[in-house]
From TrEMBL, chain A:
Species name: Aeromicrobium endophyticum
Function: Part of the binding-protein-dependent transport system for phosphate; probably responsible for the translocation of the substrate across the membrane.
Keyword Magnesium: no
One Pfam family of this chain: BPD_transp_1
Domain of life of the organism encoding this protein: Bacteria
Family: Belongs to the binding-protein-dependent transport system permease family. CysTW subfamily.
Transmembrane residue ranges: 32-51, 57-75, 87-110, 136-166, 178-205, 211-228, 260-281, 331-356
NCBIfam families reported in the protein's UniProt record: 3a0107s02c
Protein's UniProt keywords contain Isomerase: no
Stated name of the protein: Phosphate transport system permease protein PstA
From TrEMBL, chain B:
Residues annotated as domain ABC transmembrane type-1: 73-301
Record's function text: Part of the binding-protein-dependent transport system for phosphate; probably responsible for the translocation of the substrate across the membrane.
PROSITE patterns referenced in this protein's UniProt entry, alphabetically: ABC_TM1
Gene name for this UniProt entry: pstC
Similarity annotation: Belongs to the binding-protein-dependent transport system permease family. CysTW subfamily.
Protein name, as recorded: Phosphate transport system permease protein
Location in the cell: Cell membrane
């Protein structure tokens, strides 16, 4: 606001144009940011198309030219506004920077993954396949069984634990500990969960145990805290008036919870569970430890090794065999399938919460 | 909210069987969670102790436990800290962009995009890191070696494949960015409107408003976001296992060479399949070390949040 420094003459003695000039003098034109960014993009695009510099360098050029904006500003507007403009440039470019990997991942996975996708890819296993061909049927089956079993284990535990925290604990010390440790549990590394499942199963089945259900136990360790947290949040949102109305009608507490509270929060709970499934379905490390890898279809989670999509993608990339390109193509195909499943689950979660949540909570 | 119901319970005379079963189920589910967490620690300890006490010739590495696990701990911390250094400023920038710089409607869409990044499975990040990022980084490492080689971090010889600890850290940074951004965004959005408007009304620029109104309010939230990100980065397995080309027992500050220290998690993932006997126990013991480290980090993060909860937006 350097323009507002007192001037010897009073404003009244000058023309309106002078006043306006003084008030607005120390400002860049309104279009200045657009102008600079536009120029930067044009230069970068020219370099990219004409001189063939790569995309990363072109982005750097855009960033470098954008820095002209704060420099211009320091000349016209002074230091404070220039700092503001500099930060705006930095904040915006940090966002663009963060979007880079997202698009890069999507483009790479879709580009390399669609090559192998086809009916055969989803209906054939890898049994007796060398080189070209084969598919992910066995891994798909394994992933669905393992994740399904994990859901069956974690949802009741998570749901009831959340009910305890919200409806029964009344804020006692135990509930505070549970809440705190659930938070801490969210941060358990997935591989540690796998090791836990192995250490547990090894006591019963002896060394070298590999079982699909072990993978489910490991995934449950990762899934339970997510279910508890999201369900708890949803139960807390249920208005107390509903509970009180139910009690006033003489309904016992357990029926109030199961017939009034849970149905009200159902959409949110389902959303939370779906997101939790989406989170664990892509976990590789625990399944690598306890579920192992195999080329054949295995429908029994209690018997022997079980393939899963993430482990399949990992193993295909790690030990591609000779020639390697077919296996690596399959790895990308499996990664794309996994990504599609996760995206689909996310979409379902959003739709459920959009269409089924009680009105007014959207 | 439940406190309003407390007097009712005292007066209630009829305790129905359904009530008893339901509250019993709920309470035991809550306690079960505590048991599971204790079980994780207990089983890892039971199976890990033989690995810690194993003599050097009983395990595959041919080393006793401490010299074996130390380079792994070093590698884990190094990769995670570099990832954090990259991710924290970007996460704060992105969160600020979404919460205060972009139009509100656009911000929601952008937030969804970032959440999408969080949903990408780690094996996909690993494939991306090794199939896309590493080859792209290799020429940059060559450049760093020839121009900044006097700095120990870039001493080289530069890896030709780009599968260095630097690349692994960048992948880790990308992976922890969404969770940190999500937390920072939530807290930035909770900054009291009046604080912001007061700052702007006093003539502050937008950046000065952020510095004077948003950051002081969000500080503990940013710290906890960073520590949760650190916890994630410490425990991340597959991306590191796929991207990094490791050589056992290395402890080096060199970030761009092809001889890198492994991380605990990646080492377990890579060696567990072929391990047998006491080697398995040693791996489980290293997992226990990782569990303790991440537990402490998360514990500290949660404690920071809980302590400051009453007078900041972090909860």
């Amino acid at each position: 606001m350097t323009t507002l420094t007192p001037t010897p003459e009073s404003p009244g003695n000058r023309g309106a144009v002078d006043v306006q000039k003084e008030l607005y003098g120390g400002q860049l034109p309104e279009r200045a940011p657009l102008l600079v960014i536009g120029a930067a993009v044009v230069v970068a695009a020219a370099l990219y198309l004409a001189a063939g510099v790569n995309l990363m360098l072109a982005a750097l050029v855009v960033f470098a030219i954008s820095l002209a904006l704060p420099v211009w500003s320091v000349a016209v507007e002074g230091r404070r506004k220039a700092t503001d403009r500099l930060v705006t440039v930095l904040v915006t470019s940090s966002f663009v920077l963060a979007m880079f990997p997202l698009f890069s991942i999507l483009v790479t996975v879709i580009g390399k993954g669609t090559k192998v996708l086809g009916i055969d890819f989803f209906t054939f296993s890898m049994r007796n396949v060398v080189g070209e061909g084969g598919g992910i049927y066995h891994a798909l089956v394994g992933t669905l069984i393992i994740t399904g079993a994990a859901t069956v284990i974690s949802v009741p535990i998570g749901l009831f634990a959340a009910i305890y925290l919200v409806e029964y604990s009344e804020g006692n010390r135990l509930s505070r500990w549970i809440r705190f440790l659930v938070d801490v549990m969210t941060g358990i590394p997935s591989i540690v969960a796998g090791l836990f499942a192995y250490a547990l199963f090894v006591l019963f089945f002896g060394e070298g145990v590999r079982m699909g259900i072990g993978g489910s136990v490991a995934l449950s360790v990762l899934m339970i805290p997510v279910v508890v947290r999201s369900t708890e949040e949803m139960l807390k949102l249920v208005p107390n008036e509903l509970r009180e109305a139910s009690y006033a009608l003489g309904v016992p507490k357990w029926r109030t919870v199961s017939k009034v509270v849970l149905p009200t929060a159902l959409a949110g709970i389902v959303t939370g569970i779906t997101l939790a499934i989406a989170r664990v379905i892509g976990e590789t490390a625990p399944l690598l430890i306890i579920a192992g890898a195999t080329d054949s279809v295995n429908f029994n989670p209690f018997d022997g090794r079980m393939a899963s999509l993430p482990v399949f993608a990992y193993a295909s990339q790690r030990n591609p065999g000779i020639p390697p390109e077919f296996s690596i193509d399959r790895a990308w195909g499996a990664a794309l399938t996994l990504l599609l499943i996760v995206m689909l689950l996310n979409l379902i979660a959003r739709l459920v919460s959009y269409f089924f949540s009680p009105k007014g909570e959207r | 909210m439940t406190s309003t119901l407390a007097p009712r319970r005292k007066r209630s005379t009829v305790v129905r069987p359904g009530d008893r079963i339901f509250s019993g189920l709920s309470t035991s589910a809550g306690i079960l969670i505590l048991i599971v967490l204790a079980g994780v620690a207990a089983f890892l300890t039971i199976e890990g102790i033989p690995g810690i006490t194993a003599s050097p010739d009983e395990v595959k590495s041919g080393q006793s436990f401490l010299p074996y696990v130390w380079p792994l701990v070093y590698g884990t911390l190094l990769a995670a800290v570099i990832a954090l250094l990259i991710a924290v400023p970007v996460a704060i920038g992105v969160a600020l962009f979404i919460s205060h710089y972009s139009p509100r409607k656009l911000g929601q869409v952008l937030g969804y995009l970032i959440d999408l990044l969080a949903a990408v499975p780690s094996v996909v990040y690993g494939l991306w890191g090794i199939g896309f990022l590493a080859p792209k980084m290799a020429p940059i490492y060559q450049w760093l070696e020839s121009n900044l080689g006097f700095i120990p971090f870039f001493a080289g010889p530069a890896s030709a494949t780009g599968r260095t600890i630097m690349t692994a850290s960048i992948v880790l940074a990308v992976m922890i960015l969404p969770i940190m951004t999500a937390i920072c965004r939530e807290i930035f959005l909770q900054t009291p409107r009046l604080h912001e408007e007061a700052a702007l009304a006093l003539g502050a620029t937008r950046w000065e408003m952020a510095r004077m109104a948003i950051f002081p309010y969000a500080r503990s939230g940013i710290v906890s976001a960073a520590m949760l990100g650190l916890g994630r980065a410490l425990g991340e397995t597959l991306a590191v296992a796929m991207v990094l080309s490791v050589s056992a027992g290395t402890v080096t500050a060199n970030l761009i060479s092809s001889t890198n220290p492994s991380t605990i998690a990646a080492n377990i993932a890579l060696s567990f399949g072929e391990a047998s006997g006491k080697t398995v126990n040693a791996l489980i013991a290293s997992g226990l070390v990782l569990f303790v480290i991440t537990f402490l980090v998360n514990f500290a993060a949660r404690a920071v949040v809980d302590r400051r909860k009453d007078f900041s937006g972090a909860n």
